[in-house]
Amino acid sequence: MKKHLLLILIVWFTLVGCNGGNAEKGRVDIKGIIKEVDYERNKILVEDKHEGLVWVTLQENEDISEYLEGQEVVVWIKGGIRESSPAQADALNIEFTNPKD
């Protein structure tokens, strides 16, 4: 019985350890060009070649003035992409990519 309990604890700690830190930031959900910036609603419209147009709502503490039309960004989504036209999502993290000249 003690061996089974020990095995369960080891598996549990392994799974919890793998889910911590920046695990959510592993896979990029959207990569594309900013097509529009909505300063009033604190969101940007990103065109991704796979997802199409997606309104991405920034986190409350994020400064929207950093974002300009034409910039390329990668976006990690919190939750999922909600279906609408255009689609909508909440940003977990947004980073700028370097332009390829």
Outline the secondary-structure elements.
Blueprint: H1 2-18, E1 30-38, E2 43-48, E3 52-57, E4 72-82, E5 87-96
Parallel strand pairs: 3-5
Antiparallel strand pairs: 1-2, 1-4, 2-3, 4-5
CATH C-level of the domain at 27-96: Mainly Beta
Biggest sheet descriptor: 5 strands, mixed, barrel
Structural class: alpha+beta
Radius of gyration, in Å, reads: 18 Å
What would you say the CATH architecture of the domain at 27-96 is? Beta Barrel
- What's the arrangement of strands in the largest beta sheet? 1-2-3-5-4
Please estimate the helix content: 10-25%
Q: What is the succession of H and E elements? A: HEEEEE
Overall form = elongated
Mean pLDDT: 84
* Distance between the first and last residues' Cα: 63 Å
What does this 3D model show about the protein?
The chain has one helix spanning 2-18; strands at residues 30-38, 43-48, 52-57, 72-82, 87-96. It is α+β, with helices and mostly antiparallel strands and 101 residues long. It has a domain at 27-96: Nucleic acid-binding proteins (OB fold (Dihydrolipoamide Acetyltransferase, E2P)), CATH 2.40.50.140. Strands 1-2-3-5-4 form a 5-stranded mixed barrel. A hairpin with a 3-residue loop joins strand 2 and strand 3.
In short:
The protein is of the alpha+beta class. It contains one helix and five strands, in the order H-E-E-E-E-E.
Q: What keyword list fits this structure?
A:
101 residues, alpha+beta, OB fold (Dihydrolipoamide Acetyltransferase, E2P), 5-stranded mixed beta barrel, 1 helix, 17% helix, elongated
